[in-house]
Amino acid sequence: MVMNPRPDGDCLMNALLASELMPGGEAFGFEAPLEDGLVQPATAQAVREDAADRLQAELASDLRPLWDTIYTIVLHGYATDHAARVDDTMGMSQDEWYQMHYRWAQQPEAAAELDAYRQTLVDQLRTSGSWANTAGDAAPILLARIFRLNIEVIQPNGAVVLLNPVNSDRRVVLLRTGHDGHHWMGTRWPGAQ
């Protein structure tokens, strides 16, 4: 059964909350506390807050496993935003222009600015309805890692993408639909409440 949350910018979080773990059919997280003793948040905003709090805590640490998970997404978002701020292609192709900013973002002198960008991502993730940004791009893999889920994503073209496949005992199937796959739907076993 497909669960279709409102397209309000929180549909990914609501799709996860409406879904069931496969193949057992239990609600995602409610009956089974996670390894760290936390139970699934009850609202989309609680999912956002939990993820943002974890990322925020890692910003103050030298160990950043969640940030490492989304490193390429963050660099891509940062390089794109930095290139837009500079607003000067200097006669380069779009790919050359992007690659120049991507390389710059990896330099040591970019570290403080990159951490400020990471804080922006935390703020975006914490904001209800926020999705058309770097946090929205990073959210699926972040939520898979944070809640130790193997999320099987069925794309609009029928392709299947696995997020965090090491946790196959906690599998959730989500559908991406709508224009450019920007809407998320959850799944439940037939007959589920």
Describe the structure.
The chain has 193 residues and is of the alpha+beta class. It contains 7 helices and 5 strands, in the order E-H-H-H-H-H-H-H-E-E-E-E. Strands 1-5-4-2-3 form a 5-stranded mixed sheet. A hairpin with a 5-residue loop joins strand 2 and strand 3. Helix 1 crosses helix 2 and helix 4 (71-86) packs across helix 5 (94-105). The longest helix has 16 residues, at 44-59. The protein is globular, with a radius of gyration of 18 Å. The N and C termini lie close together (11 Å).
Summary of the model, kept short:
The chain is an alpha+beta fold and 193 residues long. It is built from seven helices and five strands; from the N terminus they run βαααααααββββ. The chain has helices at residues 11-18, 44-59, 65-69, 71-86, 94-105, 111-126, 134-146, and strands at residues 2-3, 150-154, 160-163, 171-177, 183-187.
Q: Low-confidence parts lasting 5 or more residues at pLDDT below 50?
A: 27-35
Written as H for each helix and E for each strand, in order along the chain, the element string is EHHHHHHHEEEE
Q: Calculate Rg over CA atoms.
A: 18 Å
Shape: globular
Mean pLDDT: 79
What is the share of helical residues?
40-55%
Largest sheet entry:
5 strands, mixed
Please state how the strands of the largest beta sheet are arranged side by side: 1-5-4-2-3
Strand segment tally: 5
SSE-based structural type: alpha+beta
Topology summary:
Layout: E1 2-3, H1 11-18, H2 44-59, H3 65-69, H4 71-86, H5 94-105, H6 111-126, H7 134-146, E2 150-154, E3 160-163, E4 171-177, E5 183-187
Parallel strand pairs: 2-4
Antiparallel strand pairs: 1-5, 2-3, 4-5
